[in-house]
TrEMBL record:
Gene Ontology MF terms in the entry: neurotrophin receptor activity; transmembrane receptor protein tyrosine kinase activity
Residues annotated as domain Immunoglobulin I-set: 21-88
Pfam families: I-set
Gene: Ntrk3_1
Name recorded for this polypeptide: NTRK3 factor
Transmembrane segments: 122-147
UniProt organism field: Mohoua ochrocephala
Length: 160
């Protein structure tokens, strides 16, 4: 039956790697669990290993893991003679703003009425703001033209 020889905590090389070595004859099939659920391999999380005789060595690789990837990782090795599993804790990043998470959930549940936006009132306010901005731009262009046209006259009729 299979035996798990080593299972190491995640280490950062090119990617984060949970290294493992499994012995078994016949060669066992390997799969992973994350917090007790079957781990689906993706481009972000995938397993690479090679078989050398009766030993399979490899890594469960993580490409830029986040706090969502924290948890218990279990390798399960199975062949016709039995199965073996071993678990290790993987900790990659701290959860951002852990002390304020309750505050955010409270704010999301109880939104004050003055924060709710009426779409007609909002579109009216936006059109007023755009109109004022356009008026200010036109006024600036007119002032610039007037300054250029009338600001060049010399005082007292003297030529410069």
């Amino acid at each position: 039956p299979p035996r798990i020889l080593t299972l190491e905590e995640p280490v950062l090389h090119m990617e984060h790697c949970i290294a493992f070595a499994v012995h078994g004859n016949p060669a066992p099939t390997l799969h992973w669990l994350h917090n007790g659920q079957v781990l689906r391999e993706t481009e972000i999380i995938h397993m690479e290993f090679y078989q050398q005789g009766e030993v399979s060595e490899g890594c469960l690789l993580f490409n830029k893991p986040t706090h969502y990837n924290n948890g218990n990782y279990t390798i399960v090795a199975t062949n016709q003679l039995g199965s073996a599993n071993q678990t290790i804790k993987g900790h990659f990043l701290e959860k951002p703003f852990p002390a304020m998470s309750g505050l955010f959930s409270f704010r999301m549940q109880y939104t004050p009425k003055f924060l709710c936006v009426d779409s007609k009132a909002f579109s009216f306010q936006v059109s007023i703001a755009v109109g004022l901005a356009a008026f200010a731009c036109v006024l600036l262009v007119v002032l610039f033209i007037m300054i250029n046209k009338y600001g060049r006259r010399s005082k007292f009729g003297m030529k410069g």
